[in-house]
Amino acid sequence: MPPAASAPRLESLRHWFASQHDLAIAACELSLAAGDASFRRYYRASLPDGQTRILMDAPPAQEDSHPFVAIARQWEAAGLPVPHLYAVDLEAGFLELEDLGDTPLSARFDDEASTLAWHRRAIELLHQLQAAAPTQGLPAYDAALLGRELDLFPDWCLAWLALPTPPSWPALREALIASALAQPRVAVHRDFDAMNLMVRGEALTLIDFQDAVAGPLSYDLISLLRGRYRRFDAATFAALVDAFRRRAQAEGRLDAGLDAATFHHQVAAMAAQRALKVLGIFCRLTHRDHKTGYLARLPHFLDHLRDSLAGLPAHGDFAAWLEDDFAPALTRALAREGVE
User: Fold this and answer.
1) What is the Cα–Cα distance from 43 to 53, expressed in whole angstroms?
2) Are 147 and 173 in contact (CB under 8 A)?
3) Which of 2, 32, 182, 228 makes the best surface tag, with the fewest CB within 10 Å?
4) The three-state (H, E, C) secondary structure of 72-108, written as one string
5) What are phi and psi of 205, to 5 degrees?
6) Could you tell me the sign of the dihedral formed by the alpha carbons of 2, 152, 218, 139, in that order?
7) For residues 162 and 185, is the Cβ–Cβ distance under 8 A?
């Protein structure tokens, strides 16, 4: 469980919640519900009638909650399943949200059959998101942003491993950016991960969408299918991707003439971009932000990167460097850190 907020800030949050509902301070008990890789913390509070709320503490000096509030209201108006906002104080960094419970989608991955079934439900929600959420007002997932994300890999991961950037990196970087920009633009959650989809009954609800952008159609798909919890075999992954392609084409979000091979190549490039970004982010979270647990996930995303590069034969030089130089260096570094 992440650490709670400072005592003065937690006390301010209690007073704010009490004022929203005309409650005595003594009646406002807050329990830490969750935290994430940012400075945000979430608390559960009860109302006299037995209802519960989630209170978000997002210190304004570290977190800008304006995008979260704007997107939550916009997506709710579009009919998308997002937590309802009951009260907002952006100056203080306090939000009162609908309580969605404690069950993320990842908790439903009991066996192979249920895992696949829930992933298909999540993809159904992704189609709903792409069909309903407007792109107006969202930042562009442009070449500059894609490049900054890719540069996290040499700046943080390779720097930690004391490895030079390979000669094959510039060509791969350029190709991944170009492929992403060639895709249709839709509203992109940007962390469409099983931890950010909450389960209530048989329904899924979106959370943690404050970093949404207007960007490539396949990004959220690979966030889900090549996320932190599962590594699908090639045949299953290809089948899920092709089903997504056909649905997107039928609903007009993807050119009906785009063939399966081209789309699979775009998906492989998008997946490689995200895997490289995640490798960099997890190193940054560890070494700059002093977060724990992220280094242990690096081998999983290395496997995702391997899978992605298998679909990009033109970048065999980088794939060879990954096996000959990067993978052994990562193994040695994790051993030094005591990560199994």
Assistant:
1) 8
2) yes
3) 182
4) HHHHHHCCCCCCCEEEEECCCCEEEEECCCCCEHHHH
5) -125, 140
6) positive
7) no
pLDDT tens figures, 58-111: 999 999 999 999 999 999 999 999 999 999 999 999 999 999 999 999 999 989
What type of residue sits at position 316? G
Nearest Cα to Cα of residue 317 among 173, 178, 172:
172
Give me the amino acid identity at 155.
D
Spatial contact of 189 and 276, defined as CB atoms under 8 Å apart: no
Separation between Cα atoms, residue 127 and residue 236, nearest integer Å: 19
Residue 3 pLDDT exceeds 80: no
Q: What is the DSSP string of 214-245?
A: EEETTHHHHHHHTSSS----HHHHHHHHHHHH
- Sort strands 94-98 and 203-206 into parallel, antiparallel or unpaired: unpaired
Other Cβ atoms closer than 10 A to 107:
13
β-bridge mates for residue 42, sequence order: 34, 56
Structure tokens at 157: 């991961």
Q: Is 113 helix (H, G, I), strand (E, B) or coil?
A: helix
Tokens at 322, concatenated: 């990954």
Cβ neighbours of 256 (radius 10 Å)? 9
**Alpha-carbon gap, residue 10 to 18, rounded angstroms:** 12
Residue 184, judged by CB atoms within 10 A of its CB (0-12, 13-18, 19+), counts as middle
Q: How far apart are CA 34 and CA 61, in angstroms?
A: 20
pTM of the complete model beyond 0.85 = yes
Helices H, strands E: what count in the chain? Answer: 12, 9
**What is the rounded CA–CA span in Å between residue 161 and residue 169?**
16
Question: Is the separation of the CB atoms in 240 and 124 below 8 Å?
Answer: no
